Amino acid sequence: MTDDDARAVYASWIKDLAGANALLDLRILVLKLADAEPGTRRAAETLAGQIVAKARAGADFCALADVRRG
């Protein structure tokens, strides 16, 4: 595969995604906070902030989903 081939495939994907029926691969991590004690809630909010920062930096989603490894 040449660089031009890769660019052509990428351009095709972008064109396909621009349509009204484009699929979105949505990934969500949930931390339960509703019934948490104040200290636990703060710790969970801190963890959530760390996960968001790692995700924005390009960390692997599966590693983020397992906070013991992430």
Please characterize this protein's 3D structure:
- This protein has 70 residues and is mainly α.
- It has a domain at 24-70.
- It has helices at 3-17, 38-56, 61-65.
- It is elongated.
- The model has no long low-confidence stretch (mean pLDDT 77).
Give a concise summary.
The chain is an all-alpha fold. It contains three helices and no strands.
Topology:
Elements: H1 3-17, H2 38-56, H3 61-65
Radius of gyration: 18 Å
Counted by DSSP, the helix tally is 3
**Main β-sheet description:** none
Helix content: 55-70%
Our estimate of the beta-strand percent is under 5%
- Poorly predicted ranges: none
Number of strands: 0
Tags for this model:
single chain, about 70 residues, elongated, mainly alpha
